[in-house]
């Protein structure tokens, strides 16, 4: 298979021997030539001899692929499909390409006889297996060291596939003409953008295809809160953060960092925009929870390490194109440093936050001490039953 990334580095002979003996093998049969296929942080175009990937370090990996049209049809690349796999030492995973679905079918891996047959012919199959791109292993581990198999399985869709393009269907299934009679007509000119949007059918994810991410509460304050409490909970999001931890990661709060990594990988490698939106929401929640920083020291020490590696992998122009909208990242990190370097925070966390602030200031030339243009008073919507005298 031909690499679409930078050239590989020479692998240490001892490492190569250990991976050859202990590494897992993905046997992927029937994938059309030209298909883009990748594992973790590196991808290739499949060649005519490709039959899979060998010498894969045991652990969590992200396999992804997308169809590519022939050069005569423009060589356009289709939407990316991916899935997280946890591989055991010397494990063989067998999948066959389904041309109708344009997807890999892993059902053969459940056939012990078939897997045993493949294992007995591995020597003959070896020349057709590409070695795992060991040069990206360190990067991959740095992006997923908090993401466990349990958390990945909990978060990825029930369908088992993470798709760059959402599989959506109309919320209202209007199968009969009379059902459509009461719907807005779309054969006349719209008077406004809002009218045009209102005419579009409301869509939802096809059941089983959506990412199963933690729900971040829209109301950041407890029921029955006073106006003063509502204002406080809008400035310090600790109540909302504790709600997310209680509902999703009660036994192990640090798994929230795994979810942050899951969302980031889905976006950075899987091209899933919903992953980016959830990453932004989780990051804002964590960075604007002053009381929680004093309570969850290990969570925030881990957050700095996770962000250090994530921001190191984002292309420089990314901030111009996406993150800089509404000054999101600089304003979010400014709030984080204001709280993390403030009084009442553990000394080790404060020291690490100061070093991280200096690192980001130098790397991206951000000024976290400047007043942001949008530092206007926070406008808080009060519940209908709450009045202010």
From TrEMBL:
Originating gene: aar2
> GO CC annotations?
spliceosomal complex
Q: Which family does the entry's similarity section mention?
A: Belongs to the AAR2 family.
Give the UniProt keywords, A-Z. Answer: mRNA processing, mRNA splicing, Spliceosome
Q: What is this protein called?
A: Protein AAR2 homolog
Q: What is the lineage of its organism?
A: Eukaryota, Metazoa, Chordata, Craniata, Vertebrata
Name one process (GO BP) from the record. Answer: spliceosomal tri-snRNP complex assembly
Location of the AAR2 C-terminal domain = 215-369
Report the function annotation for this chain.
Component of the U5 snRNP complex that is required for spliceosome assembly and for pre-mRNA splicing.
Q: Which Pfam families match?
A: AAR2, AAR2_1st
Q: Where is the AAR2 N-terminal domain?
A: 22-157
Q: How does it assemble?
A: Interacts with PRPF8 (via RNase H homology domain). Component of a U5 snRNP complex that contains PRPF8.
Q: Which Gene3D superfamilies match?
A: 2.60.34.20, Aar2, C-terminal domain-like
């Amino acid at each position: 298979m031909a690499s679409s990334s930078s050239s590989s580095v020479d692998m240490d002979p001892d490492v190569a021997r250990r991976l050859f003996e202990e590494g897992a093998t993905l046997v992927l049969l029937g994938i059309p030539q030209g298909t883009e296929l990748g594992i973790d942080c590196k991808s290739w175009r499949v060649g005519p001899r490709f039959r899979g990937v060998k010498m894969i370090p045991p652990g969590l990996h992200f396999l992804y692929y997308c169809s590519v049209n022939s050069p005569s049809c423009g060589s356009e690349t289709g939407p990316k499909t991916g899935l997280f796999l946890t591989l055991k030492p010397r494990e063989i995973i067998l999948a066959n390409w389904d041309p109708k679905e344009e997807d890999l079918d892993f059902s053969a891996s459940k056939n012990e006889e078939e897997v045993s047959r493949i294992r007995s012919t591995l020597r003959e199959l070896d020349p057709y297996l590409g070695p795992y791109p060991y040069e990206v292993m360190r990067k991959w581990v740095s992006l997923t060291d908090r993401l466990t198999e349990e958390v990945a399985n909990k978060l990825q869709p029930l369908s088992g596939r993470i798709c760059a393009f959402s599989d959506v269907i109309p919320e209202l299934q209007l199968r009969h003409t009379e059902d459509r009679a009461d719907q807005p007509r779309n054969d006349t000119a719209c008077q406004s953008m809002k009218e045009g949007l209102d005419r579009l059918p409301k869509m939802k994810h096809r059941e089983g295809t959506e990412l199963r991410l933690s729900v971040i509460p829209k109301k950041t304050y407890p029921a029955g809160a006073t106006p003063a409490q509502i204002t406080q909970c809008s400035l310090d999001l600790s109540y909302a953060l504790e709600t997310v931890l209680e509902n999703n990661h009660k036994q192990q709060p640090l798994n929230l960092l795994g979810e942050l990594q899951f969302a980031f990988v889905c976006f950075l490698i899987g091209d899933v925009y919903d992953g980016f939106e959830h990453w932004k929401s989780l990051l804002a929640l964590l960075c604007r929870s002053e009381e929680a920083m004093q309570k969850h020291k290990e969570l925030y020490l881990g957050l700095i390490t996770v962000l250090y590696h994530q921001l190191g992998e984002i292309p420089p122009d990314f901030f111009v194109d996406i993150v800089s909208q509404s000054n999101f990242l600089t304003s979010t990190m400014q709030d984080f440093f204001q709280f993390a370097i403030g009084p009442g925070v553990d000394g080790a966390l404060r020291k690490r936050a100061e070093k991280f602030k200096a690192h980001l200031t130098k790397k991206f030339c951000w000024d976290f001490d400047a007043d942001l243009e949008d530092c206007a008073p926070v406008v808080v919507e009060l519940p209908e039953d709450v009045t202010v005298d």
